[in-house]
Amino acid sequence: MPLRAQKWSFSGPFGNWDKAQLQRGLKVYREVCSVCHGLKFVAFRNLADLGFSEGQIKTISVGIQDPWTGRTTKGEMFERDGRFPA
Asked: I need a labelling partner for 13 at 20 to 30 A (CA). Which of 49, 52, 71, 77 fits?
């Protein structure tokens, strides 16, 4: 039995995403998936596309340590809290 074609709200060039659903997905990622998986290539500024306000993004970014900040004068790596805008 062949599969029937489905119509998705996000299909095609004019599709759209349910922002509330994407925000719930980020919450699940932060609570469950982030233990093993990272999002190091996603900038905090991209969270605005999910409907988060600047204040919400700042709150999210504070709890995240950024290990790729730089080196001290002794050559040791250091971390800092995430910042928005990055």
From this structure: 52
- Sketch the domain layout of the chain as residue ranges: 19-72
| pLDDT tens track for 25-61 | 989 988 899 888 887 778 888 889 888 998 888 888 8
Locus of tokens 């204040």 = 55
Is residue 71 within 8 Å of 79, Cβ to Cβ? no
Q: CA 81, CA 86: separation in Å to the nearest integer?
A: 11
Query: Is the distance from CB of 65 to CB of 37 less than 8 angstroms?
Result: no
86 falls in which pLDDT band (50, 70, 90)?
A: very low
